[in-house]
Amino acid sequence: MAMASSLSRRRTLMIFAFAISLSLHLQDSVGNGIGIGIGIGIECEKLGHERCSFAVSSGGKRCVLEKSMKRSGEEAYTCRTSEIEADRVKDHIETDRCIKACGLDRKSLGISSDSLLESRFTQKLCSPHCYQCCPNVIDLYFNLAAGEGVFLPKLCEVQGVNARRGMSELRSSGIVAPGPVNSVQFANIAPSLPPN
């Protein structure tokens, strides 16, 4: 009887330890921006500057990092809710894996399509590790490219040669991205890229 009681206590302790471990892992993942924050009610204004860029609020608006100067001359960073809506993404803090794979920087200020003109950046953005695994990032840059009249999958096809020339060729060729993109299926627009 004592042995059965001892086994029962051990089993209970193991289950309890596992539950605590899992809870701490999930909290750490969400708290450090390593995982997706599902259902945690992200408010951009409450995010620190180390988690702001490429995050999406619970309302589906993208968070942007802004820099200002205090009266003392010291730089201050603030996370704000932008007017840019994310398609089908809410309550999301981008993973470190995607930040690295896509060649992004958590200290990015604002959101701009200028980076699409840099060949190193487009190579990383169009890499299979980013393009196929980071739909939040691809959604953002798909829409930024569309705002410039460029279809991101086509840009990814020509980026190997020269992104700047590719953007110019795409603009002058009449290949223009469709209007607002709300139903893009990323699996269907993957560019044909040579394997790494």
Describe this structure in words.
The chain has 196 residues and is α+β, with helices and mostly antiparallel strands. The chain has 2 domains: 7-93, no CATH class; 111-196, no CATH class. It is 40% helix and 10% strand. The protein contains 7 helices and 2 strands. It has helices at residues 2-31, 96-101, 119-125, 128-131, 135-147, 152-158, 163-173, and strands at residues 61-69, 75-85. A two-stranded antiparallel sheet has the order 1-2. Helix 6 (152-158) crosses helix 7 (163-173). The longest helix is centred in the first third of the chain and has 30 residues, at 2-31. The chain is globular, with a radius of gyration of 21 Å. The N and C termini lie far apart (61 Å). The relative contact order is 0.11.
Mean pLDDT: 74
- Note the run of SSEs as H and E: HEEHHHHHH
> What is the CA-based Rg, rounded?
21 Å
Overall number of domains: 2
Which consecutive residue ranges, at least 5 long each, have pLDDT under 50?
Answer: 16-39, 170-190, 192-196
How many beta-strand runs?
2
Helix content: 25-40%
Strand content: 5-15%
**What is the first-to-last residue Cα distance?**
61 Å
As laid out across the biggest beta sheet, the strand order is 1-2
- Total of helices: 7
Largest pleated sheet: 2 strands, antiparallel
Classify the secondary structure makeup into a structural class. alpha+beta
Overall shape: it is globular
